[in-house]
Design goal:
Its main location: nucleus. This is Ribosomal RNA-processing protein 44. It comes from Cryptosporidium hominis. With 1037 residues, this protein is α+β, with helices and mostly antiparallel strands. It has 25 helices and 45 strands. A hairpin with a 2-residue loop joins strand 11 and strand 12.
Length: 1037
């Protein structure tokens, strides 16, 4: 990467300019030339808030206090960005524009973190034309200053234009020299007590800085560790965010100079091994803390390589791109798998970590949110384990395209930020005697919340302060001589167990952006410059059909404020006078969000980054600003609102003779909850207009549902757990996080009254059917007009091998009519199972069968037709084509579809970027990732509240159902709480029979535990090492 500065100086009375041009490679791989005209000033302000030379009366810091002025070189940002952005000793960090240019081209992650840091502070004016005031705490001396210094726009620091060609790295390094010299000369006239530091570890640049800086400049050229030694007496917590070297840790559990893990193979050995087909690479997916697997391809055959034990995992972490070597000596059947794990020398206990909250109550058609990747894993790795050792027909890994292996290299790390807490100092657990203290720092063990991530050694001065706190830690390195990786703290979220803290943990883990919307985003709101309530005006009415006098109403969950959709129905005259059937105009009215969210605006950019509204038990993280979400766009009752309407002429047999779309303005007459609407329908004495409309919609929806099931739509079980709670806040308290400073916060007092399964009503299904019909109708419309750039949603076929295993499991309990050749076959099979004798005797088994079937499903995905080669079929809904149109307030995918639909009916042109295949492909991937994260955050929140409920109210005794039998434990589903967990079994009292499978009591042979048995269980909260787990024990009779 290089650029050329053309010496085209243009002089004016105060400014000069030159053209800077360079060649760059875009993210899409294209090469382009960039040219900018740069204006150069003769005078400039330094930006230092204590400088009386520049800011006169506004500055006034004591000259006795030492001020550290830091010039980080480009190499420091890549390795020590957390230190540069957070350390308390960095009083004034000067970052030249040339450094920012370098980081923009080389490290997007660092530049984004740096930009966020710069946005969070109020910067002093640099150019003299800007009026100086003391508003917004510009001269707050208690916070560190980060100064963007325009070296490229200042004559004394701008690089020599005679240099015709150089790269970004040279430009960045040379700018440090010029900027440092200018600051030294500028502040030589100041009486302030100042020390200058250039931070770098690059030996070449150390020599350049030393040779180019004046001998008496009083500027120290040091690396970050040397710098900390200079300032540690004044700033006792400095350096806490620096990575520390493994050699600093005295690991008493290992002999000196002895490796715990094997060394990685060399790059040459790896490349040669891959070429020869003896080594394989793939993404590691962890199943538990000491077991992972990767999928590889060998001679066009897909294989699964199982990696068992810490030594074979060899310092790899979930998501790493690893290189593995197959080991025939490790190939074994499932029976020997556990013994191999248990014999593995490790500090951790063997933990069963497949503890997944699942769906279980209610009956809905399989849609987009009723299955996920974790569920698919469970059917393979939990529910089927008990059947693989029957009759000596165990599927060895080799017979089932499964092999064992070991990691011999890591090509790419997937290290990220991890939330968790420290092992308490008073822990008597000998497993953690690796910790030892020095005079100023302590080595502590950090336990991540994610059980798939290993414990991390941190090196901190804040040990006592961060006890019992939720921390954010990153991994720095994992040396082969250390059993654990080493890392450092990048954030303190708050006290462990506090609701707001634990909610912050969920949002951080799931990468949910919960920050406030920026002023530029809020300026996009139609009423941003006034306080009055928004009302549509004449411009808003343009090209709209006025439906405000029509009977329009919404049906939503209780407390819903972001109302995306409303319904209406009216009897119309049939075209054919001889027809004996009634025809209706049924309309689904969807909030017209795209009227307010225009392409290429700050609000559109922000919505695309967030992608979804995230729903937690106690809060909602909006995709759009609240004013749009709950007011301007929300189809609230008795207010004029803009909508995008899908209309059908349909009869009572759900036969459709016409479909059309238009933009409308409505005034919803009612905002019902599902229960309120259901009560109106069920009240036979109520023959009002609204009751008649609801009953007509209900009747048509039932036919729609029946027709879809007959085409092969999958009817599976799902549950939604509801929490009845109250929140209040106590008095403000002082917390001191040292490096974060003292801050005022308030704690939430939470009173959880009850946790219960959500009651799914017929009105839920009624609304769902029309939303699905609208999504299908819109998908057909946009594909007919824009076949090569549509955003659709597909559901791939299930994992048929897992369905075969499930069939085998069900046969053990007398269910033999389970078939799955296609979606219609599976749908009919599930329906027939409900009529079987075993289900009639125990109806809950029918729900559990549907739950286990859900586990075999793949995840539904957004995709763009411009790059799809996998078809458009939605397996769960049995629809050839499908998209998302009905929830634009909470899903960005729907906003894209609204734009496509609007263009397809000629209301407005389609923005050019949507014809860009790369853009649409990248967008679909972002939408899939963020939707998944939002779903998981919601489930994490529910699990947190169940934990808090059990912690507040003590052990909960309830009914559980066995959904898998192991030789030492049972997997129990708890309908009341809608989740599952592993209950341990005393192996000395039970014998395991894999052929059934079941556990038989040795003292009482009639006492057995088998699949789908009901058991009495105790649910309780466990917070060992702040893991916040909900545990299950079986209560003996």
């Amino acid at each position: 990467m290089s650029f050329k500065v053309e010496s085209n100086l243009v002089c004016s009375s105060t400014l000069k300019s030159y053209n800077k041009s360079y060649i760059k490679k875009t993210r899409r791989g294209k090469i382009r030339k960039v040219s900018n005209e740069i204006y150069v000033r003769n005078e400039i302000l330094c930006g230092l808030n204590f400088c009386t030379l520049c800011y006169g009366k506004y500055s006034g810091i004591s000259n006795q206090k030492v001020r550290n002025i830091i010039f980080p070189n480009f190499d420091i940002f890549n390795k020590y960005s957390d230190f540069i952005l957070e350390d308390e000793s960095l009083n004034h960090v000067v970052i030249p524009y040339s450094i920012l240019d370098y980081l923009s081209e080389t490290d997007r992650t660092v530049i984004n973190k740096l930009r966020n840091k710069l946005r969070s502070q109020n910067e002093l004016p640099i150019f003299k034309e800007i009026e100086l005031t003391n508003e917004n705490n510009l001269f707050d001396y208690n916070v560190n200053q980060y100064i963007r210094f325009p070296d490229t726009q200042f004559t004394e620091t701008c690089l020599n234009h005679s240099i015709s060609r150089f790269n970004f790295e040279d430009c960045a390094g040379n700018s440090i020299i010029k900027v440092a010299i200018w600051f030294i000369n500028h502040l030589s006239k100041s009486n302030a007590n100042i020390r200058f530091y250039i931070l770098t570890e690059n030996e070449e640049w150390i020599k350049k800085f030393t040779s180019n800086l004046p001998f008496d400049s009083k500027c120290f050229i040091v690396n970050p560790y040397e710098y900390i030694n200079f300032v540690s007496n004044e700033y006792v917590n400095s350096g806490d965010k620096l990575p520390f070297k493994t050699s600093l840790v005295n690991d008493n559990s290992q002999p000196e100079n002895n490796c715990v893990f094997p060394e990685y193979a060399s790059e040459r050995e790896i490349l040669q091994g891959i070429d020869k087909g003896v080594l394989f690479k793939g993404i590691l997916r962890m199943i538990s803390r000491n077991r992972g697997e990767i999928e590889v391809t060998n001679k066009n055959r897909k294989m699964t390589v199982n990696i068992i034990g810490h030594l074979n995992l060899n310092r790899s972490i979930d998501g790493d791109l690893v290189v593995v070597k197959l080991d025939e000596t490790l190939n074994c059947d499932e029976k020997n798998l556990k013994s191999q794990i248990k014999s593995e020398l490790e500090l951790d206990q063997i933990e069963d970590l497949e503890h997944t909250e699942i769906a279980g109550i209610g009956s809905i058609l399989l849609g987009d949110d009723d299955y996920d990747e974790n569920s698919a894993l469970n059917i393979q790795n939990i529910s089927i384990q008990s059947i693989e050792s029957e009759d000596n027909n165990s599927l060895t890994f080799s017979e089932n395209n499964n092999f064992s292996g070991r990691v011999i290299g890591v090509l790419s790390r997937n290290w990220g930020e991890y939330c968790g807490s420290l092992v308490p100092m008073n822990s008597n657990d000998d497993r953690f005697n690796i910790c030892n203290n020095t005079s100023t720092r302590q080595h502590r063990i950090f336990v991540p919340i994610d059980p798939k991530i290993p414990k991390i050694i941190i090196h901190t001065k804040l040990s006592s302060t961060i006890e019992n706190q939720r921390l954010v830690v990153v991994i720095d390195e994992w040396d082969c001589s250390s059993f654990y990786p080493t890392g450092h703290i990048v954030g303190v979220l708050g006290k462990a167990g506090d609701l707001e803290t634990e909610t912050s943990v969920i949002l951080r883990i799931r990468d949910i952006n919960s920050s406030e919307f920026s002023p530029s985003v809020l300026k996009c709101l139609p009423n941003h410059d006034r306080n009055d309530d928004w009302k549509p005006n004449e411009i808003d009415f343009r090209d709209r059909v006025d439906l405000r006098k029509k009977l329009v109403f919404s049906v939503d969950p209780p407390g819903c404020k972001d109302i995306d959709d409303a319904l209406s129905i009216e009897l119309i005259n049939p075209n054919d006078d001889n027809s004996q059937e009634n025809w209706y105009l049924v309309s689904v009215h969807i909030a017209d969000v795209t009227h307010f969210v225009k392409p290429n605006t700050p609000i559109d950019d922000e919505a695309s980054r967030r992608s979804n509204t995230c729903y937690l038990v106690n809060k909602r993280i909006d995709m759009l600003p609240e004013e749009l979400t709950t007011n301007i766009c929300s189809l609230v009752s008795n207010k004029d609102r803009l909508s995008f309407t899908c209309n059908w002429e349909i009869n009572e047999n759900a036969e459709i003779r016409n479909v059309y779309f238009n933009k409308t303005i409505i005034n919803s007459k009612y905002s019902f909850t599902y229960l309120q609407a259901q009560n109106i329908i069920d009240d036979k004495c109520n023959n009002s207009e609204i009751a008649i409309s609801l009953r007509r919609l209900m009747k048509i929806s039932q036919v729609l549902r029946k027709n879809r099931i007959s085409r092969g739509a999958i009817e599976l079980s799902s549950s939604e757990v509801k929490v009845d709670f109250e929140e209040s806040r106590n008095l403000y308290q002082d917390l001191n996080h040292n490096d974060l400073g003292k801050e005022q916060i308030s704690s939430v007092i939470l009173n959880i009254k009850n946790v219960y399964a959500y009651n799914y009503l017929n009105t839920n299904s009624m609304v769902e059917e029309f939303m699905l019909l609208a999504n299908v109708s819109v998908a057909r419309q946009i594909v007919s007009k824009f076949p090569n750039c549509c955003l659709l949603r597909r559901h791939p076929e299930p994992k048929y091998d897992q369905l075969e295993k499930l069939k085998h499991v069900l046969s053990k309990v007398g269910i033999s009519n389970f078939t799955y050749e296609n979606s219609l076959s599976l749908s009919n099979s599930l329906k027939n199972i409900l009529d079987s004798e075993i289900i009639k005797k125990n109806p809950i088994i029918g729900k559990l069968v549907r739950i286990l079937t859900t586990r075999t499903m793949n995840q539904a995905l957004y995709f763009t037709t411009c790059k799809s080669v996998e078809g458009t079929f939605h397996y769960g809904l049995a629809e050839e084509i499908y998209t998302h149109f009905t929830s634009p307030i909470r899903r960005y995918a729907d906003i894209i579809v609204h734009r496509l639909l609007s263009a397809s009916i000629g209301l407005e042109p389609l923005c050019e970027v949507m014809f860009d295949k790369d853009y649409m492909f990248k967008l679909s991937n972002t939408l899939n990732k963020n939707k998944r994260n939002a779903q998981m955050a919601g489930r994490d929140s529910t699990r947190l509240f169940i934990y808090l409920f059990c912690k507040q109210n003590g052990n909960q005794e309830t009914e559980g159902i066995i959904i898998q039998v192991r030789n030492d434990s049972l997997l129990i589903f708890v309908p009341k709480f809608g989740f599952e967990g592993i209950a341990p079994i005393d192996k000395s009292k039970y014998i395991f029979d894999a052929n059934v499978p079941y556990l038989k009591n040795l003292e009482k042979e009639t006492d057995t535990l088998k699949l789908f048995d009901k058991v009495k269980v105790s649910i309780y909260a466990s917070d060992e090492y702040f893991q916040n787990k909900v545990m299950i024990n079986i209560i003996s009779d």
